[in-house]
Amino acid sequence: MAVEQERKKVRVNLAEHPEFPATNECAVMTSQDLAKHVNALFNRIFADYAGCKIIIDQQGDPNSQQLVLNGAHPVQLELIFALGNSYDEHSKKLYAFRPITDKIKEQHVAGGKMNYIERCIGHNISITQNRSSEITQDGVDIFSSMLWYDLARKLSPNPSVKEFNNLRIVAEGTSTQSQTPYMQPNTQKYVYNIVHGVDINSVIAMLFGSDSDGLPMVYNVVPIKPIINAMQMIPNVQQQNIEQKWLFNVLRYNQQTISDLLNELGAYNVNQGLSYYSETY
Fold this sequence. Notes:
Elements: E1 24-30, H1 31-45, E2 49-56, E3 58-59, E4 68-69, E5 75-82, E6 97-99, H2 100-108, H3 116-128, E7 133-135, H4 137-143, H5 149-152, H6 161-166, E8 170-174, E9 191-198, H7 200-208, E10 217-227, E11 245-254, H8 255-264, E12 270-271, E13 274-275
Antiparallel strand pairs: 1-11, 2-5, 3-4, 5-9, 6-7, 8-9, 10-11, 12-13
């Protein structure tokens, strides 16, 4: 009798594979990771930059499963600038803030030291305006391109220091703590300036830029969940000095791919009354 040969299964092996049409890339980061990236950018630019604070705008208990985030700006960023760094006109870095007394000095004693009267003028201005420093025009130029859209649209095409002050984008604060959250270890200042309203997505986009092919990318920082540390699990422990850290999903999208996808939403080819696609790549 003839021996029946075992039939081999038919298999498909492609010699070439099409490239997977990914619409986005992602990176999971903690609050501290994200802050280090923000610091890496602004440390290169400003001589008086100290650090940043990342805040989740939410309602309710952060330990609860029911978190209600701010729909417009769930991730808020505060940029902190230290006072006390002496101004160096030969520095390659910019200054985001200048002491009020420096402004008086430039107006009254160009190239020299202030006399007693001019020091009094500077002191009186700082008292009446309730601040000891003012944002520079360099700072205004840089931050105006990073603000939330709903805030930036209130500025003129060439915003001024006065406009920033009127919108309260900058504020001055004091602290009795040795360090402000995320500040560098060697920076210990008691008076500092804060810049509000900066879009963290714009900061991340400026830092990481386009993809390897030079194509423009859109970035989106999305909070995932709070990170509960061991101290928060101990009953009857004061929590006000414990910083709440978060876990984030940092997404980046190819701008052209997303635009093409949005153009296709809700549209499809109709073939002889049947709803199916007939096109191919």
